[in-house]
Amino acid sequence: MSDVTMAEKDAENTPKPEKVVQADPKMMGRKVSVFYGEKQALFDVDIDIVEKQVTALIGPSGCGKSTFLRCLNRMNDVIDGCEVKGSITMDDGDIYDPTVDVVQLRARVGMVFQKPNPFPKSIYENVAYGPRIHGLASNKAEMDAVVESSLRRASIWDEVKDRLDQPGTGLSGGQQQRLCIARAIAVEPEVILMDEPCSALDPIATAKIEELIDELRTNFTIAIVTHSMQQAARVSQKTAFFHLGNLVEYGETETLFTNPSDERTQGYITGRFG
Amino acid sequence: MTVFILIAAVLALAAFSYRFGRGAALSAAGGQSRSLHSRPGYYGAYTALWCAVPAFLIMAIWLIFQGSVVEALVLNGLSAEKQGLSDSEIGLIMNDIRNLASGNFTATSPDPDIAAAAEHFKSLNATGFAAMAVLALGIGIAGLIWARKKLSPELRARNSVERTITIFLIAASSIAIFTTLGIVLSLIFEAWRFFLQVPLHEFLFGLNWSPQIALRADQVGSSGAFGAVPIFAGTLLISFIAMLVAVPVGLMSAIYMAEYATPKFRSVVKPILEILAGIPTVVYGFFAALTVAPLIRGFGENIGLDVASESALAAGLVMGVMIIPFVSSLSDDVISAVPRSLREGSLGLGATKSETIRQVVLPAALPGIVGSILLAVSRAIGETMIVVMAAGLAANLTANPFQAVTTVTVQIVTLLVGDQEFDSPKTLAAFALGLVLFFITLALNVVALHVVRKYREQYD
Amino acid sequence: MTDITKNGSAPLGAPGHQGIAEVVAKGLKKRYAAERRFRMYGLVAIGLALLILLVLFTTIISNGIGAFFQSKVTLDVPLEVSEIDPDQTGDLDVIGKANYRGLVFGSLRADFPGVSGRSNRRALTGLLSSGSDFELRSIVLDNPDLIGTTVQAQVSLSDDADMFLKGNMTDVEVSAGDGTLAMTEDGVLSGGVYAFGNVFIDVKAEFARKADEAENSIAQNQRQLGRIDEELAVTASRLENADDEAQKTTYADTLRNLETLKANVNASLEKLTSDATDFRTRSQSDAGEETLDQSMPSYLVVTNDGVFKILTVTRDKVTTEIVSPPSSLDSSADWQIVKLQTPETDRRLTDKQIGWLHLMQDRGQIESAINSAFFTTGDSREPELAGIWGAAVGSFWTLMVTLVLSFPIGVMAAVYLEEFAPKNKWTDLIEVNINNLAAVPSIVFGLLGLAVFLNVFGLPRSAPVVGGLVLTLMTLPTIIIASRAALKSVPPSIREAALGMGASRIQAMTHHVLPLALPGMLTGTIIGMAQALGETAPLLMIGMVAFIVDIPGGPTDPATVLPVQIFLWADAPERAFVERTSAAIMVLLGFLITMNMAAVFLRKKFETRW
Fold first, then answer.
1. CA distance B63 to A184
2. Cβ-based burial of B442 (10 A; exposed 0-12, middle 13-18, buried ≥19)
3. Exposed site from B405, C232, C357, C569, fewest CB < 10 Å?
């Protein structure tokens, strides 16, 4: 575990704000470029997703932030004609290595999508889906425990505990999204990717999700795409600003918002474009 | 053919009216088309419509009634003894007269009475036709004159013409309703006459079907029983076998096409599979009778099974093949309509593609798939040629796919092909079967279309 | 595991992060196997469908290709003036009425002077098509100057002869004879010690095969006998216990029937047993001579322009029936044995007829020509005279009526529903109706045609005009649905532009929208017409199944259509009709593929993306 010791050394050398527990890069992107057929969507992006922290990816629409997020669990594989160059490592292993199994990778790197997408099944089955396909629970009791703890950790247990057998599609938008988060954490991923998880929700539901993200940080490494700067400021420890497929600036959220080094970042956070 | 000449004449008159009306309108406006309310062509069209529409209406009405009127007149002219005959015998005589008049059947020397009647028939028809021609052309000209009188630069010709066009459009679209109405009424009417002779409960619940009515009292096996249960059972058996083939093959190929196939593979294989849907059913029937049935029979003999040469299995298998493209293209649409986000949700959790399909996509698409299967079942039940050529005629009540069974459509065809008197219960039974067939397929279609529509709305 | 608290909040019983990766990895192999299996099911399904399509097409083509060719024989026919035009009028009417049948038959008989006896001569001329006299007649009528000369007339052979020559009747094995063959006037042929050894062994093997067969049947019959005995016992006990009179009669009847059946089975068993022993002994005995019978393959010997049919065989000598006498009785080194695998009783040509055909082939009189009759004539009871032209013309008229009615009505209905119809109950009803009519079984439309068009309106039976009406009702939904889709694809901006210029709604429609939607509508119409062309069932209902020889001259003449012709031929017993059915299917599929390709072409050419 050499990277841990290196990270510890790092932590000793550079003074950090107190709330950052560890500056341990869980995932690292180096010179990541993405092409959709002829069109290049990302240009040589270098980024670290730090363990047990929330990394926010911000930027105007079409800047490549979602594209980058989808590279982290190889969801881009699904899209025809999409090609990823450069390297993305997770715990020092290249996730685009041919020997890496994409199913295994996605079990370690879960994802929550922009629009809540519960399966047309019961609430219980939605959460049980992941553990079931991966064979994580050996009997009904274990499965019940996994479902309950996942729903609890997604702060939705109290709202749904009496209607676990009802379809997940019958919940409200915010509840659906928390159900999707519960579904994602049920397989105990190491990293959770969230692609604008609140963009389809009202402010109250958004607040709940943000609260939840903050709680989840204790157990999971989180990367979140958002185009709300306030949200990024509220929930994240690290922020990366993307513009036109380039990573413009990456750093501590506080620093980036109070003292951006690039004028494009400055322009974006002050609302001059975006 | 002469009717076609008359139609051409009326059309020519209408063309003349168009030019005439157009010219008249222009000259009324002093050659200044700007001072007309509508473009000059509309005045032409206005005149032509007034000329042709009434003429064609008269012709249509005349043609519909001429046949029965002439027939009644001819029958009145027949000798008294012939008039006393039963309806079906009179029908036969009428047939003779008609054949004689049209110049067929000259070989046998006809009864002088009938020969005279044929002459009478011919002359009446000729007179009738002449009268119709005169009347139609006369009315056309009258319409032309009437329209000419109304022509003036202020006439809102365009509005009138467009209103007429709209009426035509409405009439054209109402044909669908009249077709359905025609089907329902004719089936119910004939079936009603059947149920006057054979009680409904016997038809629906009887276990014995042998529609041959005994000609002599001592004839064997001609009881004239109309219990349709064996027919319904046979139809279900063959349709069931067909679905056993069509659903797995159709569904799996649809899944492969929608989820796995590369665009190139899809663009090549899909049209080839659709050829299966374009092959006429009579070809499938021939294939079933010539190739598949002997194959199954031979196979059965090899393993010591007694297989009828017109086994339900042969007809069912081939029918299944016919329905494969139907199931696959409908299911393909349905599967493709499942939103991408659901697939990504599942893949994002680390599910493999097949897990995603089986546990997320298919359950989500289930209502649509059920709908398309229902449509396929309705098609299987109504399919005629394959079973006529490859299934049997004997109404066996059995669930053994190696035996011969018969179906609703086979019975309809056998009962109605060939010369039939129209009042015997045997002929009418075909309409009763047709009625059952129509309502069952209608119910299946309505339910299926409803289910599919609801499904589409869910993901739109 | 850097930090124990990492797993601290993991749920009870569930493994932590690292453990999970292991669990997942463990299941992977199985899951990927399932994935591969599932994917394979899909491929297998598609492969199966494609395979069936391939088998279907191969069957049809391999069966049907032969029908495009017809075996013909060239005969030297002396066209005597006295026979054809005794008064030398030169009048085509007189010439046309001459006895051409006599001429053709006479010249064939002249080729086989050795064939005598009424039935033999009839069998010989039976090889000619019953239309062969018309072929000669048209040769003469085309060129009356030939009268008085001898023409080499090529006339058709009968369907059975045609089938034999195409190899559809029996397997034929020709083997060259070994050594020199001596012959006598009464048909005793002898050669070297083993000249007929192969035939002899063949015959022995055949007896062995027949013995096996008989023994199998014996076993089957014995099993049946056992079943009958069981049933007899059961029925007998039932009869004893039956208390009601009616039941007693039934059981007594059954008992009687069973007894009769038993007697029959016993009788056949007896015969089979004696046959089996007989065959077995004959196959095993080393007797010098064997007699052939009609239930065995036949053997012909061909030499010196003569044909012999073997009756008895030893290893070096055969006695024969002379099918066609040889030109000389000189010994010959050039001789063949022709084995006809199918026994004479199981085929439609006798050994003699086949012998004659073989001679004609040897003489180079027979050749296979393009079967032009197939494309130019109507239906016929004789397969070699039957053609599809009548049905094709019938299909043409029917489709014309369908097209003339369904295209305008379909387009008008689509225009109304898509552009003008207000949203109300009536239009909803129309929509529901159209969708349902598209799925109503076609035979129901036939019932409608029968009940309304024939019985109420009194339109003629079997006429293309009625067929066209029925098919119009059937194809309308297809055309309406396709036309509406075409109208929908025209962007509203075009309508708005026209309306904004002050055009009326109908003007905007006819001037701007309709021309843009027309290719789509035409595509739909072609597809509808293709459906109509392949449709059979409703036309059966309105009497288009009649046997019609004449080519229909218009939409009111009695006619049949291609698919119905296929249906009629498929039912005919002659083997030659199987060939013609397949060929007619090839023609029909050709039309359908052309129409569909036209539709695809139209769609590609005019496809506009807005």
1. 75
2. buried
3. C232
Q: What is the ipTM of this complex?
A: 0.87
The Cα–Cα gap between C188 and C318 comes to 6
Angle CA(B445)–CA(B449)–CA(B451) in degrees, nearest 5? 120
Give the residue from chain C lying closest to A4, CA to CA: C2
**Residues β-bridged to residue C157:** C128
A/C interface, count of CB pairs below 8 Å = 63
Task: Supply the pLDDT for residue A18.
Answer: 41
A vs B: CB pairs below 8 A: 70
Q: What is the DSSP letter of B109?
A: P
- Give the C-alpha separation, C513 to A77, whole Å: 43
CA distance A114 to chain B (A): 9
Residue C88: which region, alpha, beta or left (left: phi > 0; alpha: psi -120 to 50)?
Answer: left
The whole-model pTM stands at: 0.85
Amino acid present at C343: P
Cβ–Cβ < 8 Å for B374, B197: no
Scored b (16 or more CB within 10 A) or e, B369-382 reads bbbbbbbbbbbbbb
Contact by Cβ (8 Å): A42, A67 = yes
Cβ contacts of C444 on chain B, cutoff 8 Å: 183, 187, 382, 434, 437-438, 441
C320 forms beta bridges with C310
pLDDT tens digits, C399-443:
999 999 999 999 999 999 988 888 888 888 888 889 889 889 999
Cα gap A1→C28, rounded to integer Å: 26
CA nearest to C541, candidates B350, B388, B273: B388
Q: Chain C interface residues facing chain A, Cβ-Cβ under 8 Å?
A: 2, 6, 9-17, 20-21, 23-28, 31-32
SS3 call for A89: strand
Length of chain C: 610
Q: Are strands C335-340 and C172-176 parallel, antiparallel or unpaired?
A: antiparallel
C23, C26, C30: best to mutate for the A interface, most A CBs within 10 A: C23
Whether B375 contacts B326, CB under 8 Å: yes
Q: Which residue do the tokens 């299995």 mark?
A: B313
Amino acid at position B430, single letter: A
DSSP readout, C569-596? HHH---HHHHHHHHHHHHHHHHHHHHHH
Query: C430: distance to nearest CA of chain B, Å?
Result: 6
Report the residue of A22, A91, A132, A134 to disrupt the C interface, i.e. the one with the largest count of C CBs within 10 Å: A134
Structure tokens at C163: 């089938």
Mean pLDDT of the C484-495 span: 89
Write the DSSP symbol of residue B33.
G
Nearest alpha-carbon partner for B209 in B431, B439, B407: B407
C-alpha B340/C-alpha B333 separation (Å) is: 14
A121 touches chain B (CB under 8 A): yes
Distance from CA of C271 to the nearest CA of B (A): 24
Segment C287-313, tens digit of pLDDT: 678 888 888 899 999 988 889 999 998
Cβ–Cβ < 8 Å for B363, A121: yes
> Which residues does chain C have within 8 Å of residue A101's beta carbon, measured at their own beta carbons?
25, 28
Residue C138 contacts residue C154 (beta carbons within 8 Å): no
Q: Could you give the C-alpha distances from A249 to A57, A223, A256, A262, A273, in angstroms and in order? A: 10, 16, 8, 7, 16
CA A15 to chain centroid, in Å, comes to 26
Q: Which of B89-98, B206-215, C550-559 is predicted most confidently?
A: C550-559
SS3 B19: helix
* A residues 84-143 lying closer than 8 A (beta carbon) to C: 101, 103-104, 107-108, 131, 133-137, 141-142
Closest CA to C479 of C517, C449, C512: C517
Inter-residue contact A175 to A159 (CB < 8 Å):
yes
